[in-house]
Amino acid sequence: MSEKQTVLGVYFGDLAGIGPEISVKTLAKKADEFIPLVVEDKEIVLDSVKKYAPELEKKLIDYSIGDALESGNIYVLSVPVKTQIQPGVVSRESGEHSFDTFRTTLQLSKDGIIEGVLMAPITKQAMALAEPGFYGEIKLFNDFFELTDSAADVSRKDDLFRASVTGHIPFRTIVDNISIEGIVKTGSRLIDTMARFGFKDAPIAVAAINPHASENGLFGDEEEKIIEPAIVELRKKYPNTKIIGPSPADTVFIKAIKGEVRGVVFHAHDQGNTPMKTWGFDGGVYLYVNTPVPVISPNHGSALDIGGKGLADSHNLEIAVDTILQYIRAK
Q: Which domain holds residue 255?
């Protein structure tokens, strides 16, 4: 055990889903590797511990701002639930509580109390019911930290990485939201994140957006007018990194699997998630970067269909612990 352990905020996500279950299951296996500060209604925490990891009950300690944080304990900063939340049900109430606990967690980072956030899955629909206009975690980070340069996410599974230029937006708007600047920023965050994990100057690919990389303009001109100029800029910025593309999107991830590249820039959420999750759903994580505090989550949703049933697998959240600790310690 290290002399000074990392303090992580632990966010249960949507209480209607599997967040409470996988959070306490993860703590049962990983709590000795860091100092957990759980931000959740203490009765919810206690009930979840009794159901899924009763051996943790003796480690729970109520926390107030300013208290000392010591290894071997699981601290709980209680944020009371205002209305009972039904497992498996999307509701404005669960969305409101998700906002309350998440903002409280992020405030702990502003106050210098935590060094990272372990984030269980949220339900975006519930949060949008609570605050219309909400579309995802990135908006929450941008608004809370008043970021002028947007937060972003990088997906990791083992030693492969993926970043996407656009996120949670309607499919028909994807092309309108792709730009040279956006690709350069996304590629830069991918390369910088990979370097933090020990893959400095590792090769990456930039996917095409049109079928067959447009076949010299036959199926569109986005490759020529947007993607190719962005690749030129990335090569100037990272002269020691091999950057290939535009690579046809239906085969580019094969290059990653074969080891020809270590990371891929995609242009749309599902364009990147589909091959990566198909290849390696188990153990995948999302790391949110370009924020004042690193935040990590498993690469899956809140699984409302099994919320509160004791059927959830915490493996991806456990991998998230390993990943964020590695990221923090590498700074």
A: 159-280
